[in-house]
From TrEMBL:
<keyword id="KW-0805">Transcription regulation</keyword>
<dbReference type="InterPro" id="IPR036388">
    <property type="entry name" value="WH-like_DNA-bd_sf"/>
</dbReference>
<dbReference type="InterPro" id="IPR019885">
    <property type="entry name" value="Tscrpt_reg_HTH_AsnC-type_CS"/>
</dbReference>
<dbReference type="GO" id="GO:0043565">
    <property type="term" value="F:sequence-specific DNA binding"/>
</dbReference>
<dbReference type="GO" id="GO:0006355">
    <property type="term" value="P:regulation of DNA-templated transcription"/>
</dbReference>
<dbReference type="GO" id="GO:0043200">
    <property type="term" value="P:response to amino acid"/>
</dbReference>
<dbReference type="InterPro" id="IPR036390">
    <property type="entry name" value="WH_DNA-bd_sf"/>
</dbReference>
<dbReference type="Pfam" id="PF01037">
    <property type="entry name" value="AsnC_trans_reg"/>
</dbReference>
<dbReference type="InterPro" id="IPR011991">
    <property type="entry name" value="ArsR-like_HTH"/>
</dbReference>
<dbReference type="Pfam" id="PF13412">
    <property type="entry name" value="HTH_24"/>
</dbReference>
<dbReference type="InterPro" id="IPR000485">
    <property type="entry name" value="AsnC-type_HTH_dom"/>
</dbReference>
<dbReference type="GO" id="GO:0005829">
    <property type="term" value="C:cytosol"/>
</dbReference>
<feature type="domain" description="HTH asnC-type">
    <location>
        <begin position="3"/>
        <end position="64"/>
    </location>
</feature>
<dbReference type="InterPro" id="IPR011008">
    <property type="entry name" value="Dimeric_a/b-barrel"/>
</dbReference>
<keyword id="KW-0238">DNA-binding</keyword>
<dbReference type="InterPro" id="IPR019887">
    <property type="entry name" value="Tscrpt_reg_AsnC/Lrp_C"/>
</dbReference>
<protein>
    <submittedName>
        <fullName>AsnC family transcriptional regulator</fullName>
    </submittedName>
</protein>
Length: 159
């Protein structure tokens, strides 16, 4: 799909504030409401806009400990990977799961819990009990000076 300047401005504005009314969005990007709404619907139908979500404050919810966990698997088979991915997908503490290369680990998980007791429970009662997990290496986040949910929309892209 070719994105023009209006499309990119719509995507940028909605990444900043997904609750913008169509009128406010149209005003912000310099279109009238009807064509703006048609463009938003077209972007949604094309799959460029996948969902609208609220970004919650983890600390305000008592989730104070974030960690990255590198996971090593015993066998590299589709069944082993599918089983692992199905299990971690069910754990609300797992924010992200990535199959990776270039490391001694097979997976990188981003997790969040209330505290070290919560981390221990997640690790010992859930993650290490998944068939095939042979190694776990954890790194704890001390500070997150950059944390974004917005994707970069380069003006030269798809121009």
């Amino acid at each position: 799909m070719n994105l023009d300047g209006y499309d990119r401005r719509i995507l940028e504005a909605l990444q900043e504030d997904g609750r913008l009314s169509n009128q406010d969005l149209a005003d912000r990007i310099g279109l009238s409401p009807s064509p703006c709404l048609r463009r938003v619907r077209r972007l949604e139908e094309a799959g460029l806009i996948g969902a609208y979500r609220a970004v919650l404050n983890a600390r305000a919810l008592g989730l104070n400990l974030m960690a990255f966990i590198q996971i090593s698997m015993d066998r590299h088979t589709p069944e082993r990977f599918e089983n692992f991915e199905r299990h971690v997908g069910d754990y609300p503490e797992v924010l992200e799961c990535h199959l990776i290369t270039g490391q001694s680990a097979d997976y990188l998980l981003k997790v969040i819990v209330a505290d070290m007791d919560g981390f221990q429970a997640l690790l010992l009662n859930k993650i290490t009990r998944i068939d095939g997990v042979t190694g776990v290496h954890s790194s704890f986040v001390m500070k997150s000076p950059v944390s974004k949910t917005s994707l970069p929309l380069l003006s030269s892209q798809n121009a």
